[in-house]
Amino acid sequence: MLSPADARTIVERLVEQARSAGATAADALLIGGRSSSVSVRMGELEDVHRSEADDIALRVFVGQRSASVSSSDRGDDALAELVGRAIAMAREAPEDPFAGLAPPELLLRGEPPAMDGFDPVEPDPAALRARALAAEGSALGQARVTNSSGASASASANTVALATSGGFSGAYRSTGHSCSVTVIAGEGGAMQRDYGWHSARFLDDLEDPEAIGARAGQRAAARLDPVKLKPGRMPVFFEPRVAGSLLGHFAAAITGSAIARQSSFLIGKLGQRIFAPGVRIHDDPLRPRGLRSRSFDGEGLPVHAMDLVADGVLTTWLADSAAARQLGIAPTGHAVRSGGGSPGAGPSNLWLAAGAKSREELLASVPRAILVTELIGQGVNGVTGDYSRGASGFLVEGGEIGAAVSEITIASNLLDMFASLEPASDLQHRRGIDSPTLLVPDMTVASA
User: Fold this and answer.
1) What pLDDT does 111 receive?
2) 3-class secondary structure for 295-355?
3) CATH code for 4-220?
4) Predicted local distance difference test score (pLDDT) of residue 338
5) What is the pLDDT of residue 115?
6) Is the dihedral of CA 71, 77, 82, 83 positive or negative?
C-alpha cells in the first residue's frame, strides 16, 4: 500500500501535468488500499479474500467545461494518457456556470490535522478465521438457534491523497477491522434470522466476537412466534441500530445539491426549529478513531466539528463548491467523493445527542408502542418527506418489551416525525451515523 507521501507525490504530479497540457484548473484524488477477509459457515471455511488496489481520479477544467476520468494504473504512460483523455473530454463538455474548484482563499493551508485512525496491526488470515469462527460458534450456541448464514472477519487499510491546482495538497491513512455473523432461529415456516456486527478503526476497539455472536443468536430467537398487530396509530420506538436511518434522511435533505434542485422537504427551513427544543445533531470529522473521520474534505477545505441542529433549529446546509455557488453561500467543508466524478456533499461522524431519559424510562413513558428493530424497503419521498417502510420488532406494553411483531408497515411524514421525536440517553458511538433510542409518539402502523 502506498505511503501518504508517495500518494501525495502522484496526485501533485498529475495536477501539474494537467495544467501543462492545457487545463485551466485541475484536481486529482488517489484512494489506495488493501483488504483481507475470511468467511465461514457452520464451522467450515467458505472464502478467503485479499485485494490491493489504487483508484486515481483526475478532474480537469477548460474554462467552465469539465470532465473527470479515473484509472487503476499509476504508471507514467497510463497517467499521461489519463491527462490527455480528460482534457479532450472537457473541451467537448457543455459549459457549467457553477463548475470549478473550491475558492483558493478557503483551502486548508499547511499540514492537515493528524487523525487517530491508523492501526499498524494487520491480522493474518488465521486470526481472521478464528474471529469469524468464534462469532459463529457463540451465535449457534444460543437457545433456539438452528442454522447459520455465515460469519466473516475482515481488516482493511486505505491511503487518501488529494491535490488541487488552487494550492492544496494533503494525504492521510486509515484502517478498519470488522466482524459479523447472521444466524437463523426456529424451523420450517416459523424461522427468523438476525445478525450481529461491529466495526472499528483499531483492532483493540473491536467488540469480542463471542459477544457479537451471542447478540445475533439472542436477537434471532427473540423474533420467533410473532403476533398479529391490529392496525392503527400508536407510538413507535426506533432502536439505535435503525434510528440512524432517520439521520440519514435528514442529512440527504440538507445537502446543497438537493436544496439547489428544489428537491428537499426541508427547503425554506434553514434557521427554523424542525426538531423539538433541546434536540442536537452534531457532525465531527475529526473525532478520534471515528469511522468517518477525515483530515480535509473532498475539495481540500478544512473540516471542523459543528452542530447541524442546535436546540431543534436547523443551522446549515451541507454544500460542496458547485452547490454553494448555486445557493450563493460559501462551501461548508462537507465535500465528499469516492473516485471519479465531481464531489457531492455529506456528513462525517454524525450523531443525535443523548436525551435526558434512560431507555427504560422512555419505553415506560407510553402505555403501548412498537419497538422497531429492523426496517425494510426504501419508501421515503425526499421531496415531500412522506415516510412509509416495512418493519419488524416488538410490542412494548407498560414499559416491558413483549412479543415479536413482523410484516408491518410504519408511516408518517419526516417533518412530523422530526418535530416530535424524543431521544433516550443510550447513545453509543459504534457507526458512522449514531443515535440513541428514539420515540416518535404518533405513527400509522399496519400489517404489511
Assistant:
1) 87
2) CCCCCCCCCCCEEEEECCEECCCECCHHHHHHHCCCCCCCEECCCCCCCEECCCCEEECCC
3) 3.30.2290.10
4) 81
5) 85
6) positive
Which stretches in the chain have pLDDT values below 70?
Answer: 448
Residue 58 near residue 86, CB atoms below 8 Å: yes
- Among 71, 61, 63, CA closest to 26: 61
Q: How far apart are CA 372 and CA 404, in angstroms?
A: 10
> Given this model, what pLDDT does residue 194 score?
98
Residue with cell 491513512: 173
DSSP 368: E
The residue to which cell 427547503 is assigned: 267
79 phi, psi to nearest 5 deg = -70, -35
Please report the pLDDT score of residue 447 as a whole number: 87
For residue 433, what is the DSSP state? Answer: E
Cell of 245: 436511518
* pLDDT for the residue numbered 255: 98
E-strand stretches of 63-144: 65-71
Q: How many Å separate Cα 367 from the centre of its chain? A: 34
Residues of the chain with CATH 3.30.2290.10: 4-220
What is the grid cell recorded at 14? Answer: 498529475
pLDDT at residue 303, rounded to an integer:
97
- The predicted-structure confidence for 114-163, as pLDDT tens digits, reads as follows 889 999 999 999 999 999 999 999 999 999 999 999 999 999 999 999 99
Residues contacting 379, CB < 8 A, separation 6+: 387, 388, 389, 390
C-beta of residue 444 within 8 angstroms of C-beta of residue 413: no
Q: Which is it for the CA torsion 113, 306, 291, 135, positive or negative?
A: positive
How would you label 256-288 residue by residue, b for 16+ Cβ within 10 Å and e otherwise? bbbbbeeebbbeebbeebbbeeebbbbbbbbbe
